[in-house]
Amino acid sequence: MTLRIAKFLGSLLLSFILILVIWWLFLLAFPNIGPIIGRTPIDVFNYLFGADDGTSSRSQLWSDLGITLKDSAVGFVCGMAAAIIVAALFIMFRPLSQTFMPIAMLLRSVPLVAMTPLITMVVGRGIAVVAVMGGIVVFFPALVMIMNGLSNAPRQISDVITAYGGNKWVVMRMSSLPSAVPALFSAAKVSVPGAIIGATVAEWLGTNKGLGASIQRALPAADYDALWASVLVITVSSIVLYAIVGVIETIVLAEMGTKPA
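^ Nitrate ABC transporter permease, sequence as received from the core. Prediction below:
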């Protein structure tokens, strides 16, 4: 298990290094973007740790990051909870899936930015808009993956539970949900970066707080150092949270004797 975790974290580290290399090569390939707008990873590092006002910049960035992480957690929990409940209902009552799944996929095709003004008008600019927008980003991919996991529960176990008088809810609790644990973790890993994106968009267009608002303020002020630093922090946060979920997945599935989905 330790070796598996080390390999997983090593692959994420390589991915992050690759992102930095691509970032650098992109700025080299399009020199017209910089040096006024474009910032290299070294420029961002100097902005945060080398400049005279680096302490102030870091303090503001960490404060905004704390708000964004809280907002991401709200969206993640709301979206995952809704996806698990809806997926269970769709599996137990197939007509529901056949009726509402196409509608859900149609709604997913609407850009989140286009839905933001309507969502803000309905629920306001507080934590509710964060929960709705973050939940929307998390909900749809998680729903599909969780439904697939629930559908792959061993039929023999379900038949035995049914033979002993168990109803659909008992089958779901004792067979389908335990079998879907790998799919649940896969959905969680995919949803964590999505939750951060949803929170950032909600902050940008709804709450005016956190890293989303920081990016919004940096653009008209031409504060490109803060802009690129915010983007880097969002990227690193997504990778770190993805890694945390992946490590937990490895430990839990090893204890269960189950392979990842």
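The domain at 2-256 is CATH 1.10.3720.10 (MetI-like fold).
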